[in-house]
Amino acid sequence: MKTSEIAPLSPAILETEVDGKQHLLRTEVLAGAEWGLLVKRIQENGVDIETHQESQVTVRNRGDNRIYVFAVQSVTPTNSDHGVVHVLKIESVATIQSLRKAERVDMLSKGELITPKGRFNVVIYDLSVRGISMIIGDKSICAVGDVLSVSFYVGQDFHKYEAQAEVVRFFQVKGKDAIGCRLRGMPVDVIGLVDRKKAELSRVIQEKKES
Question: Domain containing 182: what range?
Answer without folding.
Answer: 105-201
